[in-house]
C-alpha cells in the first residue's frame, strides 16, 4: 500500500511538472495579438497637408492673374479716353476758321447764358470757394488783365484734362467767349520787354482784340511762336474769333 500511494504521488508530480514545462515553453514564443486599431500615420497627414497647400497656392496665383488683368484693362480704357479727348481738341483746332460766322455773338449774350446756368445750379452755400471762383469768371471781364487771369485759369485746367471744352465747362465759361479774347491774353503771355504790344486805351475788348490781331499779322515770327506753343499745349489750342467791328 505504501508503494502504491508513493507511485501515485510521483505520477501526479510528473503530470504537473509536464504541464508547467509546457507553459514555460509556449509562453515566450506565442504571438501578441494587438487589441487597439492603428491611427493614420504621420506621413499620410503630411502628404494631405502638402496637397491642400498646393491647391491654395494655385488658387492664389489664379486670383492674382485675374486682378492683374482687370487693372490692366482699366488703365487701357482710361488712357484711350484721354487720347480721344486730346484728339478731339486737335480736330476742333484744325477745323476752326477765322470767318465772322459768330459775328452776332457778344460778351453780353455769353454772360447772359452763363447767368442762366448759374441760376439753374443754385448752390446751397455761397461761401463755397469753388462756386465763388466760377461766379467770378462767369462775369463779363472788362480789362486785359482780367482776360489774362481767366485765360490762365482755363489753361491750367486744360493741361490736366487735355480738353478745352471740358475745362471751360468746369469754370462755367463758354468756349466761344474764350476764343473772342484769347489773342489778348496770348500776346500778354509771350510779350517781352523788346516787344511793343498795343496798349489798351479804353473802348471795348473786342476793339482791342482787333488791334492785337493787326499787330500779330504784322509780326509773322511772333505768330509762328504762338502756334508752336499751342502745339506743345503751353497755350490753349483754340482759334481766334472776332465780331464785326462796332459802328
Could you characterize what this model shows?
InterPro entries: CCDC106 (IPR031591). Residues 113-131 have a biased composition (Basic residues). It holds the Pfam family CCDC106. This is Coiled-coil domain containing 106b. Residues 102-112 have a biased composition (Low complexity). The protein is an all-alpha fold and 247 residues long. The protein has a domain at 125-247. It has 9 helices and no strands. The chain has helices spanning 2-26, 42-95, 107-121, 129-138, 144-161, 164-170, 175-190, 205-217, 220-231. Helix 5 (144-161) crosses helix 6, helix 5 (144-161) packs across helix 7 (175-190) and helix 7 (175-190) packs across helix 8. The longest helix is centred in the first third of the chain and has 54 residues, at 42-95. The radius of gyration is 49 Å and the shape is rod-shaped. The termini are far apart.
Summarize the structure.
By secondary structure, the chain is an all-alpha fold. It has helices at residues 2-26, 42-95, 107-121, 129-138, 144-161, 164-170, 175-190, 205-217, 220-231.
Amino acid at each position: 500500500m505504501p508503494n502504491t500511494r508513493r507511485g501515485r504521488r510521483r505520477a501526479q508530480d510528473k503530470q504537473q511538472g509536464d504541464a508547467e514545462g509546457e507553459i514555460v515553453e509556449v509562453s515566450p514564443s506565442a504571438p501578441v495579438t494587438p487589441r487597439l486599431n492603428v491611427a493614420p500615420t504621420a506621413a499620410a497627414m503630411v502628404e494631405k497637408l502638402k496637397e491642400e497647400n498646393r491647391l491654395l497656392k494655385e488658387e492664389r496665383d489664379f486670383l492674382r492673374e485675374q486682378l492683374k488683368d482687370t487693372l490692366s484693362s482699366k488703365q487701357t480704357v482710361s488712357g484711350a479716353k484721354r487720347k480721344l479727348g486730346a484728339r478731339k481738341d486737335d480736330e476742333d483746332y484744325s477745323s476752326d476758321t477765322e470767318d465772322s460766322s459768330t459775328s452776332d455773338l457778344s460778351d453780353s449774350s455769353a454772360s447772359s447764358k452763363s447767368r442762366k446756368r448759374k441760376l439753374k445750379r443754385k448752390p446751397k452755400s455761397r461761401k463755397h470757394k469753388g462756386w465763388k471762383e466760377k461766379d467770378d469768371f462767369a462775369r463779363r471781364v472788362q480789362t486785359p488783365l482780367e482776360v489774362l487771369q481767366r485765360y490762365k485759369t482755363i489753361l491750367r485746367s486744360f493741361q490736366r484734362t487735355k480738353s478745352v471744352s471740358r475745362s471751360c465747362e468746369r469754370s462755367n465759361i463758354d468756349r466761344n467767349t474764350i476764343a473772342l479774347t484769347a489773342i489778348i491774353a496770348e500776346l500778354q503771355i509771350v510779350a517781352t520787354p523788346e516787344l511793343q504790344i498795343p496798349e489798351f486805351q479804353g473802348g471795348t475788348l473786342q476793339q482791342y482784340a482787333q488791334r492785337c490781331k493787326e499787330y500779330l499779322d504784322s509780326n509773322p515770327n511772333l505768330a509762328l511762336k504762338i502756334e508752336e506753343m499751342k502745339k506743345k499745349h503751353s497755350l490753349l489750342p483754340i482759334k481766334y474769333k472776332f465780331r464785326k467791328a462796332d459802328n
